[in-house]
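dumping this here so i dont lose it
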């Protein structure tokens, strides 16, 4: 599910730059009668990136009340699943990066906190620096039950446990 990412900065060398992060999270879930997607543009955070050493850290969060699947009842079930009254956001604590298979690929390393639980997450994706901005597009899969959440159901048909998650982020230098 959602992943995601807000403010907490660690300093590196003088070459490190602090970035304000925004973006969106997209999920795809399945039920016995088909697949559906939802989007959440309420991503915010701060990260520090050192382009010379390729070191990074930061905190990026997503407001879990802001899901939009185009179906208000589905979005209500999503908020109920996340228990947003108790756990209103999901946050990713970025601890570092690892090179990916191609020059434009990296793996973000850190911990995802969701529904009161914190688990390690390696988030592979494409990365680029352009015009003083950072761009990241990543993907991972997770299970609803791994976060001790109940799978939503409608008319007795439960959403499948496995959910696909895409992460789109943009960092603007401060």
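and the seq i came up w/
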């Amino acid at each position: 599910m959602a992943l995601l990412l807000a403010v907490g900065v660690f300093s590196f060398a003088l070459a490190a730059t602090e970035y304000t992060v925004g973006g969106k999270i997209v999920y795809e879930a399945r039920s016995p009668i088909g697949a559906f997607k939802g989007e959440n543009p309420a991503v915010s955070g701060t990260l520090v990136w050192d382009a010379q050493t390729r070191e990074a850290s930061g905190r990026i969060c997503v407001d879990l009340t802001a899901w939009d699947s185009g179906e208000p009842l589905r979005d209500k079930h999503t908020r109920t699943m996340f228990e947003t009254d108790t756990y209103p956001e999901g946050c990713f604590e970025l601890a570092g990066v690892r090179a990916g298979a191609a020059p434009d690929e990296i793996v973000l390393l850190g911990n995802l906190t969701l529904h009161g639980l914190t688990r390690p997450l390696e988030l592979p994706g494409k990365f680029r620096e352009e015009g003083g901005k950072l761009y990241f597009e990543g993907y991972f899969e997770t299970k609803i039950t791994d976060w001790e959440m109940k799978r939503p159901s409608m008319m007795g048909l439960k959403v499948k446990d496995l959910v696909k998650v895409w992460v789109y982020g943009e960092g603007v230098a401060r």
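Residues 34 and 159 are 10 Å apart (CA to CA).
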